[in-house]
Amino acid sequence: MTLLAAVLVAILAYPLALLFIKSFAISRPGQPTVWGLGGWAAAFGDVNLAVAIGNTFYLGFVRVTLTSVLAIFFAWVVTRTDTPLKGFIEVTLWLGFFLPLLPMTMGWILLLDPYYGLLNKLLMYLFALSQPPFDVYSYWGIIWCHLAFSTSVRFLLMTPAFTAMDAALEDAARTSGSNNFGVLMRITVPILAPAILASTALGFIRSLESLEIEMILGIPAGIYVVPTKIWDYIHWEPPLYERATALCSIFLLFIFLLIWLHRTYLRGREFTTVTGRSYMVRTFPLGHWRWVTCSFCLLFIFVMIILPLATLVMGTFMEFFGNFDVDNTWTLRHWVTVFGDPVFLRSLKNTVILGLGAAMVGILLYALTSYMIVRTRLPGRAFIDVLSWLPWALPGVLISLALLWAVLGSGDSVKLIYGTMSLLTLAIIIKEMPLGTQIIKAGVLQISNELEEASSASGANWMTGFRRILLPLLRPTMMAVAIIVFISAARDIPTVIFLSTHNTRTLSLLMLDYIADANKEKAAVLGVFIVLLIFALLLIGRFLGFRRSSVHS
Amino acid sequence: MDPIHDYLRPASYATAVLMLLAICAPALAQSDSGWQKKWDQALAQAKTEGKVVVLGPPGDQIRDAITKGFAKAFPDITIEFSGARGGELATRIKAERDAAIYSVDILINGTSTANAYFKPMKSLDPIEPQLILPEVIDTKNWRDNRLEFSDRSTRLDLVFATQNNVPVIYNPKQVKAEEVDELYKLLDPKWKGKIAVQDPIPSGTGNGVFRWAWHVLGPEKAKDYYTKMRAQAAAVDRDQRRQIEWVAQGKYPLHLAPGTIMYQLEKRGLKFGVIPAFKDYGSYLTPGFGSVMVMNKSPHPNAGRVFLNWLLTKEGQTAFSKGMGYVSRRRDVPSDHVPSYWVPKEGVKYWPGYYEEDAKMSPEQIKFLKSIYGR
Predict the structure, then answer these.
(1) pTM of the entire structure?
(2) Which phi and psi (to 5°) does residue A135 adopt?
């Protein structure tokens, strides 16, 4: 455990501290270092910053409120009710998380652009409207385009907690006369507070950091947020990393506030739902209401996932996404050229190695870290807990930069990992550390100590208890985290940008090549391919035994 | 005039030429074999080194333009190409060099990347001593009878392509070319709310067009123009493809500073009209990503040398020009595959805005632009 703490300090505290220190270096890249407060002063002296902060928190608050309600509802429907087509609903909600944000937003623009949006045109024609009813370039346009992804990720994170809950608690409430809604609000949600809080914190911070959709839809509407300002500084020539790092301190302060709230709420309470006794996960009959819940889920899935996904797939077969006026509207060229790209196969191989490596090593590290924070009394575990949240405060490109400086500034033995897949794997593990640790931590909180005590009483050491008791019980949660880490590895461009070389290029960097050439269609082909790849791996995983069991004991 | 003299004069000239040739022949032969020997040596050592590492901008077009031709010409030397933005490349290379890691041989990029980052980093070697092939060294093969450098005094960044920068594109169904073919016509009230303007603050074409306007108008008039253009603009955006599509689809009829991707999009079928240069103020010349640097302490110096020489031959330049649609500075490279609006024309005023001293905005200019276009 001490070794683990040392490793965490080395991979988290050292690079981040280096980044913080270098935020006071105000010289341009390549010139002798000059120290000063200029970067911080310029970042916070920006007259438009207050508006950007206001926009950021407003968008984050609305999104988190909406997605909390939706994700809890979907997780409850899928795990605790007899709603028809639950399997289909679950799998398609996962799909919502796999979909690439940029091409999906292009799909929404094609439907909701006030000038040429197909849905706007249809509604104007059908109802003889003089104005388009929707404008995707607006606050609500941004929130709408985020809804499928944000709800899906929170659904994915909450479902394991809903699964690992003893039905006896809900039975007791029902026996006492409570209805289904009352059980959900008074029993299910409060008991699952750690998982819901962790996913809410995740959702809120991810909302604050969100960039792609805000860039595409916000800028034409004059809606600027803190991440677009950070992006501006990073993409300035020369890049102004010190200002970008300074602005990240806004997120850091917010994270400290969240940690405090999280701890205050959880302190002194019990959230154990898995004990030494056998427990049951049973679905509850909703009667006729099951058709209502089913219809609502299907409507959400059709409107928020299937419709833009169909638009996205269609777009990959168009010369120009959504443009019907060019001579050769339909083409297979983008698919042919992507798969014929000489670097495609190497990039695919690297992506699979990176994804599997980060997912496997990552979940083990996150599980050990969670165990250390929740179960042990080691001094410094509170510090490790705080440390594990920190990567959320930084955009991927700054994590990449911090690792570059940390690795190249270290001894020769550490430098050896520069230019290898190991360094990219480490970057992705660090980037997803808060998510992995917090979600698995919530899972550990659900499992009673008595199981490990029984194992210890039977003569097993802590490692055996961890491996044979805790890990199997955490398997659904760890599977969800592994999927998220794999997807992050497959898609993430900024976190690997400074660390990849010719031999360690990934599909996401190939996607960057296509975006640089303004060929969004080829980027969308890769996006769809990554979705298919992940889906295939997921199905293999389910086939090999990672299915969620209906009864645990 | 003495007829004998007239008769003898050609004969004596011929004799003189023959004598001169006889004297110089060994020297010429030596010079010829000199470059050949050097080239053979470099090539043999390059094959031993096995590979050349080239950094450039991101994009599969430029990757293909650079790698395919070289791989065909020198199959025994592997080319490793990686692309990233100038600032990212500089940050990475600086960190590598601070750690005594030297991984790169050749850099192909824009001139601002060379002068803003790599030159101050002292990471470049002079280019001319690396040139071996006579067809590369012979200045008669290059426009203006010279090798062009963005840093004219230090000659570290060789500019091998320059083309006209298109300032405006328009939707021909909504605009007639003669309505927008002069700089100030864009300020006509009828275009208010109808122009998509490429953001002039970050580096790129928007920045280039606004720098050019500052140069041709002078600070006071330029400030006035910047302010009025901001009032005319329907959108100030950074997504160039989106803005070009807006024009092609008619959402906005005009786009200021469309950049080099317009060529790729036009080739794929988007339709729009082009104002190659303003009638009154002309336009400016840009190398785009058409400049090359040699990194010092490079890991494969001979392979780098072979690549550099190949890139600057007719063969290398033709491959690059065809891949990117750029106008090579070599005279013998055809330009029939290049869009005509990029080829500089006789009688048009062009500002070569890529020289080191002109390549960045003044503090006064940046401050003013931020006050108008900042967000």
Answers:
(1) 0.83
(2) -130, 110
